Fold YprB ribonuclease H-like domain-containing protein.
Amino acid sequence: MVRRTFQLIPGVGPWKEKDLWARGIHTWEDFPESGVVLGQKLDGLARQRLALAREALEHRNLTALAAMIPPREHWRLYPEFARDALYFDIETNGNQEQEPTVVALFDAEGLRVFILGRNMDELPEAMARRRLWVTFNGSCFDVPVLRQYFGKRFPTPEAHIDLRFVCRRLGMGGGLKEIEDKLGLGRPPHMKGVNGWDAVLLWRAYLARGDVEALRFLVEYNLYDSFQLRALMDTAYNRALDELNMDAVARLPVFERGEVLYDVSRLILELGPTQRDLKVLERVRAQDRDLRQD
C-alpha cells in the first residue's frame, strides 16, 4: 500500500490521491516521467518526492518515509515494516504522578514483561530495538508516561501507529476491549470486564501484601493488552484497504493469539516473590498473629 501513497507529495491530499488512482496512476511507478499530471508547477516536485520515496523504501529508511507521509496515513507503512513492529501497553500506579508498574512488549521475538522494582530499568533499551511502535492510545498516554518516567533515556521510534485513531477513522470507536469484542477478538472469561482501575488495585494489592497472585493476574491482563494489538493492527489494515476499495492489494492474515498463549502461561508461572515480597508477607503474617492473640 505504501507504493500507492501519493499524499507524500505536497499539495496532494486524500481526494487528489483518489483522483490519481481513478486516472490509472495506481503506484509510484505509474506516475508519468513526462507530461502534465498535477500541474506544471507541481509535477517536478512530485517526481522528486517519488524518487526520494522509492530510494527510502529500497533502503528500508523508515524515518525518511514516515517524515514524508502524513501521520494519519502511517498505517500504510505497516506491511513493509511489520517485522520491525513493537506492540506494547503499560499499566500505572494510578497516582497523580503516574509511574509505570507493568509494561508488556510483543514483537517478532515474542513476549516480554517489565515490572517496577524488578526489571523496569531495562525497558528503554528493549524498546529502542524496534523502529515501528504500535499502541492503542499510546501517543496520548503510554508514551508520555514512559517519557516522563525515564527522561532522556527513553527512545523515540521512527514511526508510531496509534490504533485508537486508525480505528476511529474506520468507524470503530470506543476502548480497546470494546473494539476487540466487536471484531470477535475477545478475551477469555476470567479477563472479561477487567479494566485499568482494576489494574491499579491489583498492583496496590501486590505492594501492600506481596500478593504474587495479584501480580500474576495483572501481568496476564497487561500481556493481553499488548499482543491483542497485533490482531487489531492486521484487521484495521485490511479494513482500511476495504474503505479505499484497494482490491488489488493483498490483505494480511490476521494474527492468531493461540501462537503466544503458551508464552503467556509460562511468563505468569515464572513470576515468584522477590525478597522484598517475602518481607512484606512476613510483616503481614506477624500482624495476623498479633491480631489472633488479641
Summary: The CA atoms of residues 93 and 200 lie 6 Å apart. The longest strand covers residues 85-92. The beta strands are 85-92, 100-107, 110-115, 132-135, 159-162.
